[in-house]
Structures are given as structure tokens and as C-alpha cells.
Amino acid sequence: MKLKKYITLLLSALMLMCVLAGCGPNVEHRFDTTEYSAQAEATMRSISRELARMDSLLAGHNADLDAAFARYEDGKPGRPGGDVADTAITRDALNDWAARPGRRLYVYAESGAAIEDYLSVWYTQLGEVYSALNSLSAEQWEKLDGETVSVTGMLVKAGGKTYVETEVTCEG
Fold this sequence. Notes:
Elements: H1 2-22, H2 38-59, E1 64-69, H3 91-99, E2 104-110, H4 115-134, H5 138-144, E3 148-158, E4 161-171
Parallel strand pairs: 1-3
Antiparallel strand pairs: 2-4, 3-4
Signal peptide: 1-21
Keywords: Signal
């Protein structure tokens, strides 16, 4: 009988220690159970830095940034929102985008379907978007004053190929 009591007390003490350790301030709770390759995680960190740089640029001109990479419920690529031939941000396209409310600018690049492939492509496209925004004139920045610039990357399929579509929109 005493042995049963000591075993019960020992188990209770162990459970209490586990509970306290799990609630301690230095314990990291991770809900995202997906594990990525080292390359994908490194690219995610680079993307995060690029988005922070873009956010800083926009904040300096009184505009906000909203950025995301869209994931589809069924895991399949979507359809292009623009013409997949638009693979770079041209000066004309940028000027047109900056001049009109409710504007959208699309950029495409061919990619593989693996996360390492498409995140690398999106990182490159984010650099191009940053460079394009950084080249805006003072007049163009005035039109973006107080607005939110959304930068969304997503996988799309066209002509049997997979592309990363980066859509840049502006909302008041």
C-alpha cells in the first residue's frame, strides 16, 4: 500500500515538473509542424529581410506594405492574373501602375513546383519590385501617400508550365 502511495506521489511530481517546464518563459511553442529544407529556410529569412527593406522604403513615403505568398487549399497552382509574357517590370508598366488608383502590376518567372524553387524565384521578384518602387519619382510617391501597397506571390500554371506570379496592387 505504501509503495503504491509513493509511486503515485512520484508520478504526480513528474507530471507537475513537466507542466511547469512546458509553461516556462524560455520554452518555445511551435505550432507550425512543417519542416523545410535548410535552403528553403534560408530563402525565407532572405525574403523576410527583403520585405522589411521594402516596408521601410514605403514607410519613408507614408505608405504601408501588405505582403504574402498565397497558398491554395488544394495545393494546385492558380491561373495567371495577367499576361505571363510580362516577365519584368518595365518603366512604362511602372508609370502606368503609379498613375492609376486600383492599379495592378503583374510580373512572372518560370519556376519549379518545389518550395526551394519558387521561394527563390519570389525572392528575386521581390528585389525587382523593391528596385522599381525605389525608382519612383517624388510626384509618383505623392500619389501613394497614405495608401497600402500589397505584394502577393503565388504559383500559377499556364501553357503546361509553372510560374511565380507577383502581383503588386495599391489600395487606398
